[in-house]
């Protein structure tokens, strides 16, 4: 893999989604989109979880007063609750992870990402949010690996597109749904498409800033040349490896979509 670019990164163990009990759906904003949050509870009564939310808010205000407020800010109760669930309702852990997430959103300019801002790189067709949900009612984010050329394309623009598409996919969540499906189309993948930096960014974004938003990742028709890349990526996934499924195009057609909703690049 002569063209494989390896960048150091810090990774943490990833945990699997919790078993939760749904309650009344709510909505909140991400960037230019409105993202639905079914406000799931992990075996906690509403008043109990609210006390923890208040505790996190107070701690953030006291220790990180400079963080922005409002949607996706330090006083956003929906966002606080989501990170509490991710951190098994540990106030200390939720504050730590929230602080990093809010700072990242501010520094990365997530709220400023628009279709026009990512238009140039989006036109390559390397990644897109599918127009239809899968058969499980989940928004679908598709990455076409053969159209990604790290040596010829700006990595910052790729990261901005990645973030924008995650936001867009989350904005399509129907009531009662909280996770999206990721599909990586590996047909035609070659060494010229290998980019460990981009994959590391993607994994870290989902772990640090969009925890438990990814239901499953499909690696479709992976060629033999992808194997060395997978050996590098797999340790970064930790327990998230259980979300990965290597499958064929035929599996995607039969198990995840109807004929009417199948993405065009997987049609005959």
From TrEMBL:
<dbReference type="InterPro" id="IPR036865">
    <property type="entry name" value="CRAL-TRIO_dom_sf"/>
</dbReference>
<dbReference type="Pfam" id="PF00650">
    <property type="entry name" value="CRAL_TRIO"/>
</dbReference>
<dbReference type="InterPro" id="IPR001251">
    <property type="entry name" value="CRAL-TRIO_dom"/>
</dbReference>
<protein>
    <submittedName>
        <fullName>Putative CRAL-TRIO lipid binding domain, CRAL/TRIO domain-containing protein</fullName>
    </submittedName>
</protein>
<feature type="domain" description="CRAL-TRIO">
    <location>
        <begin position="117"/>
        <end position="268"/>
    </location>
</feature>
<dbReference type="InterPro" id="IPR036273">
    <property type="entry name" value="CRAL/TRIO_N_dom_sf"/>
</dbReference>
């Amino acid at each position: 893999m002569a063209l494989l670019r390896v960048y150091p990164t810090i990774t943490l163990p990833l945990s699997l989604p919790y078993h939760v009990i749904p309650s009344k759906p709510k909505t909140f904003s991400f960037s230019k989109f409105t993202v639905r949050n079914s406000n799931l509870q992990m075996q906690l009564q509403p008043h109990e979880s609210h006390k923890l939310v208040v505790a996190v808010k107070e701690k953030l205000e006291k220790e990180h007063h400079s963080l922005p407020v409002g949607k996706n800010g330090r006083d956003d109760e929906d966002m606080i609750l989501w990170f509490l669930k991710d951190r098994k309702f540990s106030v200390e852990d939720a504050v730590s992870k929230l602080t990093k997430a809010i700072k990242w959103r501010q520094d990365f300019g997530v709220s400023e990402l628009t279709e026009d801002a990512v238009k140039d790189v989006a036109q390559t067709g390397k990644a897109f949010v599918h127009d239809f949900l899968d058969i499980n009612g989940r928004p679908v984010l598709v990455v076409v690996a053969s159209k990604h050329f790290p040596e010829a394309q700006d990595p910052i623009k790729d990261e901005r597109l990645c973030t924008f598409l995650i936001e867009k996919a989350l904005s399509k969540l129907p009531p009662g749904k909280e996770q999206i499906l990721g599909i990586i189309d590996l047909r035609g993948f070659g060494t010229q498409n290998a980019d460990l930096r981009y994959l590391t960014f993607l994994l870290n974004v989902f772990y640090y800033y969009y925890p438990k938003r990814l239901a499953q990742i499909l690696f479709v028709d992976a060629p033999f040349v992808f194997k060395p890349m997978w050996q590098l990526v797999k340790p970064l996934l930790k327990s998230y490896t259980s979300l990965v499924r290597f499958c064929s195009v035929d599996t995607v057609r039969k198990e995840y979509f109807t004929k009417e909703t199948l993405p065009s690049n997987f049609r005959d």
